[in-house]
Amino acid sequence: MPGLPASGPTGTRNARPSPAPGVRRSVEGRVSAVTAPVAARLFRIVAVAEACSWAGLLIGMFFKYVATGSDGVGNEIGVTVFGPIHGALFVAYLVVTLLAARVLRWSLPTTMLALAASIPPLATLWFERRARSRGQLSEPAPSAR
């Protein structure tokens, strides 16, 4: 076309521009906005937040069902507050776990263990410490092509 350069910055028409700083290109050539350090940090934050919301929900359930007043009715405010918060963080943990598993190249057993850790109270803390101590929350080794 008139007025357009005949070739891109690398001398070929089909050359892909380099991604922005902090953005990486996958092996397949797709651009991924989430780098390994970002995925690991996000996983750590959500895992701790999910465990804290579990603790809040358990405390709320204690006051609702165990520490009842003289009339036999418990205080529901803890469950009312922490129920939706925990629900949202639970779903966020599942999504972030799948994202981290892909970006950090976790094995299927590790991914399944991370997902299973979302169910027992405070198990996400255990898994986060386990993954960090085993180096599973750091930059994965480059894959051989």
From TrEMBL:
Keyword line: Cell membrane, Membrane, Transmembrane, Transmembrane helix
Main subcellular localisation: membrane
Spans annotated as Disordered: 1-26
Subcellular location: Cell membrane
Membrane topology summary: Multi-pass membrane protein
Superkingdom classification of source: Bacteria
Domain DUF3817: 41-132
Glycosyltransferase recorded as keyword: no
Chain segments annotated as transmembrane: 42-67, 79-100, 106-127
Keyword ATP-binding appears in the UniProt entry: no
Xref: NCBIfam families: integ_memb_HG
PANTHER family (alphabetical): MEMBRANE PROTEIN, MEMBRANE PROTEIN-RELATED
Name recorded for this polypeptide: DUF3817 domain-containing protein
